[in-house]
Structures are given as C-alpha cells and as structure tokens.
Write a structure and sequence with these properties.
With about 280 residues, the chain is α/β, with parallel strands linked by helices. The chain has a single domain, classed as NAD(P)-binding Rossmann-like Domain (Rossmann fold), CATH 3.40.50. The chain contains nine helices and seven strands, in the order βαβαβαβαβαβαααβα. Helix 3 packs parallel to helix 4.
Length: about 280
Amino acid sequence: MTLNPGTPESTFRPDLLQGKHALITGGGSGINLGIAQSFAAHGCAVTILGRNLEKAQKAARGIVEAGGKALGVSADVRDFAALEAAVALATAEFGDFDIVLAGAAGNFPAPVDGISPNGFKTVVDIDLLGTYNTIKAASPRLKAPGGNVLSISAYGIPVPMQAHVVAAKAGVDMLTRTLAIEWGLRGIRVNAIIPGPIDGTEGMARLAPDEESRSQVAGSVPLGRMGIPQDIANAALFLVSDAASYLTGVILPVDGGQNMLGGAPQYQTFQAMGFGQKKG
C-alpha cells in the first residue's frame, strides 16, 4: 500500500481529513481496512481495533510504513470494559475522536432451520450489541460539535440464509437513525453504509466461494460487477467530510443497485440449493 491520495485514483483532496482521529472497529481486514487506509491517506490518524491484536497491529504497521499515522489495539466489541480500555489507549496516542466507525461484524450463510440459538445470538451480539458498545464507549471522547459516527450495516431487505444478519443490522439502522436525532443538536452526525457484494473480503469468500457463485453474484448487480473495498471507502470519506455536513440519519446503499432488486437473486439461489422445502 502507498499513501498517495494525490493521484488521479483519489477523488478527494489529499488533506481532506488532516489532523483528525478515527476509531475503526473490525479494521484489520476487508472493507474496514480499506476505509482505514483511505482515511490515513487523506491525513487522518487511525486507531484500528480488532479481536486479534497481532492482526490489528499488522494493519496499523502497514499504514505507518506507508507514511500514515495508525495504532493497533485489541478488544472484543461484545466486551464493553475492553472497549473502554482500548479507547483510553487510542486517545492517549492521538487525542479525542473526530470519527467513530463501527465495522466489526460476524456472519455465516445458513437458513433459520440451520442456525443454532447460540449462532443467532453470537451474530446479533457482534453486529448490534458490538455497534452500540463501540459508540457508547467512544462517545465521551467524541468531539462535539463536529464528530461523526459511521456504522457498516447490511442488506436493508429480507435475505434468505441471512436471518441473523438482517435482524441484527436492522437494529443497527434504527440505532443510527435514533442517535442522529438525539445527537443532532450536539453537532454530531450519525450515518451508516450498506455495502453490496465486495470482492476480496472474507465475507464474500464465504458467501461466494467459487467462480460459479461469484459469477451469479456479479450477475445480480445492475452495474454488472462486484464492488471493491475502495468503493466503500469513497462513500465513507464523503459521509465524514464537510461535503456531507447536512446529512445525518442516512443509511446509504453502496451496492451497484443490487438493493433495488430486493431479495429475489438470493431467493433464487436459496431455491436452487434445495432449502425451504416442506419437511417430512
């Protein structure tokens, strides 16, 4: 990675986030790492938080070696006390937060019949409770006015094989909108992004593990392709920038238009796999 936002690949000015500090949970890989790298490339100090300290520190080290400012810290987003400790480390290093991005998530494809109560609870705890815990733990050190909260949501529609995820992320969406109302007078904006199918991520590797399934996924997108992490990073850069100063409570799909088709493509796959048939 090279921190070089001045090239034609970057739509945004190089100093867009100069002097700011962002906390990014789940930032050790995939979409959230792409966001962390883009934030750093535009002048932001980033604290990358993940359950695996070595992975978070490796991600931060890559940003530092490329000329950015980054710190890797460890916490399980389900553990509020651990998050508070991580917040203390982050703010001791880079000061109060301008941006809090809740991106940690859990997922696995399974029909409701195949999800154990513990499996359902685990995803809800990571995706929904983890988002709440992240925002709550960071909020005393989030700048007001001027602070931004950004969450990574999913789908926004019913999707077979994803009941646990859509249930949890619907909660994230409502938390986003409620906080946007409650914190608006503080000058804090609260938004969320719904990524579409993003290539090169662990989640997509699980949901589309072979070329046939990858082709089916790409074919379900009106723009005809899967996204890349930079597509989500570009949306995140916009939402936390002054260009979006009058936007709050927005749940923004960045999915090549896939949401407009509803859950039909996923349902066709669900049927083809033989799920949903009458038992007995």
